[in-house]
Design goal:
With about 350 residues, this protein is an alpha+beta fold. It has one domain (about 35-315, about 350-355): q2cbj1_9rhob like domain (Jelly Rolls, Sandwich). It has twelve helices and eleven strands. It has helices at about 5-30, 50, 55-75, 80-90, 100-110, 135, 140-150, 150-160, 225-235, 245, 315-340, 350-355, and strands spanning about 90-95, 115-120, 125-130, 165-175, 195-200, 215, 265, 275-280, 285, 295-305, 350. The strands form two sheets. It has an eight-stranded antiparallel sheet with strand order 1-8-5-10-4-3-2-11. It has a three-stranded antiparallel sheet with strand order 7-6-9, with no helix packed on it. Helix 5 packs across helix 7 (about 140-150).
Length: about 350
């Protein structure tokens, strides 16, 4: 191909890309029925024409209604006060969640844990996670009790709209430890178009100076203002200079909040043993770190299901094992792809000594 003229090489590359797009078109259309969210990565999801006709808004509304029905089915499992707080704010906060002795045992157990993990470097921040699968939990009796605790499972399950246990990790966030720009997670953002669940059981006190989780109360609701805003954003997000917004995790300037009818963000400066369960379709961010370096440890959970499934699933252990197997397979695939490029995956393997 090096012997070809520049114009012929350009034509061949263009033809190859067009053929690839044509062959992938059925898959990209089918992905509309999944949690796929990238405007830039999928020309169907990112199509300005289709989004002008309402594609993005239709996916928002359908996912919202499916989750509302799932939460309705699960509403008898949580207290009325918790349901009301969640409907109003988009999160549930529980201080002193565990009995003091149980929390002390859990904290000691987790701080002594030495296990392989994964780390992601973003800006000046390292996020380190250890998956709490059956291998890790074999030596963590207090953590096992937490993950099987009915109250804990039901709170997470209600917000997630699912009966099964969500993925759980020991997460440590180390801010201001790398040279580089600020952590992009400190920008106010939406995780995805669909309702999702993330939860934090904090093992450290978190103050205003140490990057607290920050959330805009009520921003999980799909109001007319929110729909109009997302409609406008969907028309040009495919070509956004912000890589994360183009991939479907919209970054939202604080100055846009009044137009959305939303209040100022709330920073969760909380004591250890506080549980926060939130819908991260709502606007949120990692708070600014004013004291560097800074780190905090937590039990972190996440669930993101098929957005258009109206049923909360089945509470079978084999389903959880299948989820974990698929998750590990995805991580190994990322490792293989990165190795072929001679680089590192986004979530790189970390041996126990480095993760401790």
């Amino acid at each position: 191909m090096n012997s070809l003229s520049p114009n012929k090489r350009k034509w061949i590359r263009g033809f190859s890309q067009a053929l690839k797009n044509l062959l992938l078109l059925p898959i990209r259309v089918l992905s509309l029925g999944t949690g796929a969210k990238s405007f830039a990565g999928n020309p169907v999801i990112g199509s300005p024409l289709l989004n002008r006709l309402g594609l993005h808004v239709a996916r928002l509304v359908l996912a919202d209604r499916a989750m509302a029905f799932r939460r309705l089915l699960l509403s008898p499992t949580v207290a009325a006060g918790d349901r009301a707080a969640f409907r109003r704010d988009g999160f549930i906060l529980k201080s002193d969640f565990l009995p003091a002795a149980e929390f002390a045992a859990l904290e000691a157990e987790i701080r002594a844990l030495r296990a392989p993990g994964r780390a992601c470097h973003q800006g000046d921040t390292i996020t380190h996670r250890i998956l709490l699968d059956h291998h890790a939990l074999a030596g963590l009796p207090t953590a096992r009790r937490l993950l099987s605790d009915r109250r804990y499972r039901r709170l997470l399950g209600y917000v997630a709209g699912r009966l099964r246990v969500p993925g759980q990790w020991v997460q440590t966030i180390r801010s201001g430890v790398l040279p580089g720009p600020p952590d992009p997670q400190t920008n106010l953002h939406i995780d995805t178009f669909q309702p999702t669940m993330k939860a934090w059981l904090f093992l450290d006190d978190v103050d205003e100076a140490s990057g607290p989780f920050t959330y805009v109360p009520g921003s999980h609701r799909l109001t007319r203002s929110r729909l109009a805003y997302e409609y406008r954003r969907s028309l040009g997000e495919r070509d956004s200079p912000d890589r994360l917004s183009a991939r479907g995790s919209l970054r939202v300037p604080v100055t846009d909040l009044p137009g959305l009818g939303l209040p100022a963000p709330r920073a969760f400066a909380v004591k250890r043993n506080t549980l926060v369960v939130a819908d991260t379709r709502g606007l949120h961010r990692r708070g600014d770190v004013l004291r560097r370096p800074s780190d905090r440890m937590e039990i972190w959970a996440m669930a993101r299901t098929n957005p258009f499934n109206p049923l909360p699933g089945l509470p079978f252990a084999w389903c959880d094992r299948l989820d974990l197997a698929l998750y590990r397979a995805w991580l190994e695939h990322q490792d293989t792809r990165a190795a072929k490029r001679g680089g590192q995956p986004s979530w790189r393997l970390v041996p126990p000594a480095e993760g401790s």
